[in-house]
Amino acid sequence: MVDQNTGIFEQAGVEVNEKTVMEWNPAADFLSFIAEGNIVFFDYASETVAKISDLSKVAEFTWSPDGSQLAAVNEDGLFIVSAGGAVAPDPVFVRERDTDDIIGVAWNHNIANPQLAFRLVRKGKSEVDSWSSIIVVDLTSGLWAYASPTVQWHSSREPSQISYVWKRLIFSEDDTGIYAPFPVLDDVNYPGKDVILVYSHE
Fold first, then answer.
1. Between vectors from CA 197 to CA 195 and to CA 111, what angle results, nearest 5°?
2. In this structure, what is the dihedral angle of CA atoms 154, 159, 160, 161, given to the nearest 10 degrees?
3. On the chain, which terminus has fewer CB atoms closer than 10 Å, C or N?
4. How far, in Å, CA of 38 to CA of 85, rounded?
5. Residue 202 confidence (pLDDT) above 70
6. What is the pLDDT of residues 166-191, one digit of tens each?
């Protein structure tokens, strides 16, 4: 509490409730979370709260393995934010269409060769031209590539009532493959299963 009636979150203009998902920075003693579309850093030792206002409408984020930066998704694309709160001026991946979704962003383990992976959902006019695929972005070169075939997609199969942290992709320990949850419409090959776990090799 700052005083008898005001807490540190309220003073910083940040709302925290039972649905707030807080994540540790892996290399420092502070937490981060999303509040009203902004990334917020909470240093519990110094009892300070810092709202990163240079990036709005953030839907999800994830820390790099060394805690020096995070990757954040908003309506424009995928941005890098330093642990000090500096936002990169340009996204490392830009949404090609307003209806594209970037879901499940994850870092690889190799800090010397940093990469990000996520699931790109392309929402077309029908099920036929709606699909989902894994994208990998090489942060050193700035190049990106498809790391999986496209999988047919429909909004009714997308798990929507769970936190974004459970939708994250996972790099294998040696970074040679990626695990990703895919909602599928293929009842022939995957009968009775709305979500399957796909393993994509580099």
1. 130
2. 160
3. N
4. 11
5. no
6. 999 999 999 999 999 888 877 888 88
